[in-house]
Design goal:
This protein is of the alpha/beta class. Strands 9, 10, 11, 12, 13, 14, 15 and 16 form an eight-stranded mixed sheet that branches. A six-stranded parallel sheet has the order 3-2-6-7-1-8, sandwiched between helices. It has a five-stranded antiparallel sheet with strand order 20-19-18-17-21. It starts with a helix and ends with a strand.
Length: 727
Amino acid sequence: MDVSHLLDELNEAQRKAVTTESKHALVLAGAGSGKTRVLIHRLAWLIQVEHVSPHSILAVTFTNKAAGEMRERAQDLLQVSTRSMWIGTFHGIAHRLLRMHWQEAGLPENFQILDSDDQHRIIRRLIKEEGLDEAHWPARQAQWYINARKDEGQRPDAIEHMGNPMTAQWVRIYELYQASCDRAGLVDFADLLLRAHELWLHHPSLLDHYRSRLSHLLVDEFQDTNSIQYAWIRMLAGDDGSVLVVGDDDQSIYGWRGAQVENVQHFRRDFTDVQVVKLEQNYRSSGNILEAANALIANNEDRMGKKLWTADDKGAPITLYSAFNEQDEARFVVEQIEQWLGKGRRANEAAIVYRTSAQSRLFEEYLLKASIAYRVYGGQRFFERAEIKDALAYLRLIQNPNDDAALERVINTPTRGIGQKTISILRLQARESSLPMWQAAQECARQNLLPARALTALQVFMSLITDMRERMQDFTLGNQVQGVIEDSQLVSHYEKEPTEKMESRVENLRELVNAATAFVLPVEDADAGMDDLQSFLSHASLEAGETQGEAWDDCVQLMTLHSAKGLEFPMVFIVGLEDGLFPHQRSVMESGGRLEEERRLCYVGITRAREHLCLSHAEVRRMFGSESHCRPSRFLNEIPSELIQEIRPRMQVQRPWVGARSPEYPKPSSIKQDWPFSLGETVSHKKFGSGTVISFEGSGEHTRVQVNFNHAGAKWLVVAYANLTRS
DNA sequence: TCCATTGACGTTTTT
DNA sequence: CGTCAATGGA
């Protein structure tokens, strides 16, 4: 068979990875080096050249987006159905296994997935019930503790607390939480992975079956795997499975979430016959940008070591703007974007990237003022909205009345006279008898433990749920959702809210009905024995849906550095490069590689840029209400200065004085009006060619401008005589 | 039950 | 400075 189409467009290193004859392969793929392409082509190679059955391939990623993209691209390249291939996220695949083998996994058939919000509520409630001081034992920390233990594969009984009362207390909370989830048939995200691992651990015959079936494993973003994911891969691979992992240790930015970069090193140790391939040719960024990235990341120790290079030119210099304060920074960035647009470039080619999400606000403000459309990544997701979760909670109760998280959510939403008192009686009863709350409620009714009024209210609620279930048994999914929203009277409940919010909430509920109506039960879910409702609910938890806006909208993109990973833009602004903000204060203080992770984050940011990279920092920034002077980020010093062109206004006006609040305070933007050009603008000169405006001086006919010419270097020119033109 | 005021707190986020 | 959650009064 002619396989040239699989190799033709690959470079040598990529080919080596795709055609490897070693049993295992570790592909160290630098940013923009075509790692997804390698993964896809390897997949196709296995099928078309090595004649591996698609049925035997498992490809895992971290995000649904990546999984979807992989399936799509594989489909395109192979021109055969990818349906029989297992392509998905770790969580998605674990979930599927648990649905198929719920009995062996010790789960009820109708178990539900608990998202982190629900998890938080449960834990908080539990800590209260225990009578613990919430200031001393914050639910957030307990949640973090539990998830961290699960990510390490530890169940409560396996944790040694060695007499440490602190640890003992956390373990106790973990135990209580787990018991409460088990009673309710709830499985949290970390539990999906842990249980999938335990499923094989405790059922060797099942493991054998999957080992012989899934003989070829492909793992994307390997540097982000945590202990349990790594253990799971190892277990599945066994002695005979073949594993190819792709990752970049320099882009490991999720250590704080349990990701173990060490897995990249361990892979070579734990697997035999591993071919290591480094992909270092970059197809994304210009030479200057890559050089900056290389120089920066070289400051990290313990790297596998890679050096990106490109066949392209050096490209435009990296620009650096030192703003007076965060307002000035935002103003500058927006002005640059206006120029970008003025050159006929598109808004969605530009991205503003920052360390903390709170930083987006000012940029939004200035973009709004300039009437430039923008989109902020990482807002609230569709299935996480309160009204959607309420509606889903009713559906979950229909599916599984023991789902305590769902019951607590809607037992009094809309208000139906079941107050805190009644609910705590139910909880108490549930705890004492180790029953889910639904059954505890029945018990309370039977034993007459409630005042008449509360009892009536409770019975109204319970029959509402029971009636819904019976009435809607044969409904289509869309009608079920519609029916639940009607019967629960959620719409009129939300209509009582202040106008603006209410409209979008009601609109969202309508959208939920649309989503349910359009939902098609995926074949693999049907295979795993799920019905429409169960599959829909699982999807809602596992992929909480689009953040907001459509990616293809022509908007300036605003996002944190974390969410920028995997994306690329012709024009990238990395803002807020100040010590304390980026690197973040908390990372500077804590040791243990935190600072190196920040540096990797910066590396990720830099390597998002294709043509233009613009860095900025503010000298004064208002944080938590008070102003603070900020040193430029140490990362700026780690980028060779010859790659950076500083754009620095030489204001005739005094620098804005700190804390000035007078309204007539001269804003940099109003000063700019007098100047024919703006900072950073590209201009051209008859003799010197084109260059960038980097500074101003004087006013009126004496205005001088400093231009850094691409060939002639930096020059001061009197605007009145120089005859500069915009380009 | 609902609204208003007060108080604590303040990375990064996908599943 | 802003947000969110908890508390307390009507």
